[in-house]
Amino acid sequence: MIHPKIIRRQQVILFALVGLILVTVLIGMGMGNASVSYNRLLPILFGQGTFKEEFVLFSIRLPRIAITFLAGMALAVSGAILQAVTRNDLAEPGMIGINSGAGVAIAIFFLFFPLDAGSFIYLLPVIAFFGSLLTACLIYLFSYKKGVGLQPVQLILTGVGFTMALSGVMVVLISSAERRKVDFIVKWLSGNIWGNDWSFVLAILPWLVITIFFTLYKSNRLNLLGLSEPVAIGVGLSVQRERFILLLTAVASAAAAVSVTGGIAFIGLLAPHLAKALIGPRAQLFLPIAILTGGWLLLIADTIGRNLVDPEGIPAGIMAALIGAPYFIYLLIKKV
Amino acid sequence: MVRLYTDSLHVGYGERSIVKDLTIEIPDQKITTIIGSNGCGKSTLLKAMTRIIPHQSGGIVLDGKMIAKEDTKILAKKMAILPQTPESTAGLTVGELVSYGRYPYHKGFGRLTQSDLDVIHWALDVTGTTAFKYQPLDALSGGQRQRVWIAMALAQETEMIFLDEPTTYLDMAHQLEVLELLQQLNREQGRTIVMVLHDLNQAARFADYIIALKDGQIVKTGSSEEVICHEVLKDVFQIDAEISRDPRTNKPICITYNLLKGDPNEKNHDFRSSLVCAHA
C-alpha cells in the first residue's frame, strides 16, 4: 500500500546517506591532532603505513569514528521508539532520564568511590549504563498507574520531573567536589566521546545490533502505537505490553550509547524527525533512514568538534546541541 | 444463538460507576444502536464491550468466552472498532492506514501478502476511498476521513463492527452516506453493526435493535417502534417528544420536543415497567 515511488525514494536516500557517511569517515580519518595526509590513507589501510601512521589511524581515529557512529545510531533508534510510544514528536532519550541518570551515577562513583585508574575507564560504561537503566525504571514505575497502565503524558511529565531533580542532585554533588574531578564530570556530561578504543566498540556493538534489529522487527507495532490507543487496541495490539518492551529497548540502546560517549542530547530528537520529514511516518520507511542519519550527525558533530579548538576540541555533545538547538526551535515554531 | 452478550456488567472509572449491572444481548447480523443522554454510559458500554477499557465485575462473553481472558489479536479478528475521535500520525497516507487493519493477521515482520492487498483494495473500494490511496489522511475532509477509518475497520475482516458516534462532525449528506454504507454492509454481508448514535431519527431509521440507556442502566430495548416513543424518550432524555412516522421509511420520527421541567432525580424508576409503546 505504499507508492512505488516512495520505496524508490527510500532507497535513494539510504544510498545518499551511505555515501555521505563514507565521505565523512574519510575526512574524519585524515583530520585531527596528528594529521594523516589523504594520499597516505589507502596505503595505510593496506598495511603500507609507518608505525606512527598506523597507530594514529587504527588505534585512535578509527575506533573513535566507529564509536561515534554506533552511538549516533543507537540514540536515533531510541528517539524513534520514544517518539512513537509517547506519540510526541519532541520526545528524545534525555526525556526518560538517560543522560541525567548516567551522569549522577558517574558523579557518585567518581567522587565517592576510590577506583584505580586502570579499571575505572572500563567500569565507567557499566556504571553509566546501570545509572540510566535505574533512572528509566524509576520513571516508568512512577508514571505507571494501576488499572490504567502507562499513559504517555504521565511518562513525559514524570521524565521531565526526574531529569530536573537529578540535575539538582548533580549541582549538589559537584559544588562540594574538587576542581579536577568536577572537570572530568562536566566533560562527561557534555558528551565528550571518551570511550575511544576498540574494546568499547566491541562492548556496545552487540547491544546495538540487537536493539536495531528488534526495533525494525517491531516496525508494525511502532506504527500502531502512533495511532490513538483505542485504535491500536482495536486492531489487536497489546498496547501496554508493547509499550513496555519498546521502552526497554529504547533505554537499553540509549544507555549503551551514553555509557561510552557521555551525555548527548538532540541526536535522538533530530534523526527520527529528519527521517520522517523525508519519507513519512511509516516505521518501515523512516527507521533505516533515521538510524543512518543519527550515526552520520554525531559523526559530523564529533569530527567538527575535535578539530575546532586545540588541543582537546569541543565535546561532540555540545556540537550536536549547536546543530540541534536551532532545529528544535524551528520545530517549536512550526508547531505553534 | 447470540454471539455477544454482557452479564451483570459493571464498568467505572475509579470510584465512579458508569455502567451498572447491565445484562444485554447483541443480536447477530443486525444493526444495534445504543442511545441515551450525555454521560449515560453508552460510550463506556461500547468501549467495555470492545475491551478498550476494563470492566470491574460481571462478564462480557463473545462466542462463549470471556473477552477479558481472550487473546487481543484473536478478538481483533472478530470485532473491529471505530472510536469516537480516532487519531492518526501526521503524514500517514490513506493506504498505509487502511493496511494497518491487517495487523491481526500479520506474522513476523508483517509484510503484506497478496490476500492482504486484496482485502485492502476491497475495503478502499467499498468505502469509495480508492482515489485517495496515496494521499495523506490529514489532507482529506471530515467525511472522507471517516470513510477511511471505516475502511480500516473493514480491512480487519470482522463479523462485528463497533462504532462510537460515526456521524459526529459530518454534515447531513455525509452522515447519511456513512450510515447507508453501514446498512449496506449489514444487509449484503450480514455483518453485525453496533453503534452509539446521538440522532434519534437516524437511530430509528437504521437500527434493527435499539438499546436505550439511562444512568448506566437499560430503560428499554427493542425495535425502533418500541423504543422511540413518547414514554421512553421522556424517561431517557427528560423530553416531551412528539413522535410521528417518517413518510418515506415509515419509521418513528421525533418531530419536535420540549424539555420537561422539574428535578429528573425525583422520577420514580419503577415507571419504566409501566411503559406502554406502540407496536409496528
From TrEMBL, chain A:
Any one GO cellular component localisation term in the record: plasma membrane
Family: Belongs to the binding-protein-dependent transport system permease family. FecCD subfamily.
Protein name: Iron complex transport system permease protein
Species this chain originates from: Melghirimyces algeriensis
Domain of life: Bacteria
Keywords carried by this UniProt record: Cell membrane, Membrane, Transmembrane, Transmembrane helix, Transport
Endoplasmic reticulum found in the keyword field: no
Major subcellular location class: membrane
GO molecular function, one term: transmembrane transporter activity
Keyword Membrane: yes
InterPro entries for the chain: ABC_BtuC-like, ABC_transptr_permease_BtuC
Ranges that cross the membrane: 12-32, 65-84, 96-115, 121-143, 155-177, 197-217, 245-271, 283-301, 313-333
Membrane-related topology note: Multi-pass membrane protein
Localisation per UniProt entry: Cell membrane
Biological processes, Gene Ontology terms: siderophore-iron import into cell
Gene3D superfamilies in the cross-refs: ABC transporter involved in vitamin B12 uptake, BtuC (1.10.3470.10)
Automatic annotation (TrEMBL), chain B:
Annotated membrane topology: Peripheral membrane protein
ABC transporter domain location: 4-240
GO terms for biological process, alphabetical: iron ion transport
Keywords, comma-separated and alphabetical: ATP-binding, Cell membrane, Ion transport, Iron, Iron transport, Membrane, Nucleotide-binding, Transport
UniProt keyword Membrane, yes or no: yes
InterPro entries assigned: AAA+_ATPase (IPR003593), ABC_transporter-like_ATP-bd (IPR003439), ABC_transporter-like_CS (IPR017871), P-loop_NTPase (IPR027417), Siderophore_ABC-ATPase (IPR051535)
Record Gene3D superfamilies: P-loop containing nucleotide triphosphate hydrolases
SUPFAM superfamilies on file: P-loop containing nucleoside triphosphate hydrolases
Protein name from the UniProt record: Iron complex transport system ATP-binding protein
Annotated localization: Cell membrane
Annotated Gene Ontology cellular component terms: plasma membrane
GO molecular function per UniProt: ATP binding; ATP hydrolysis activity
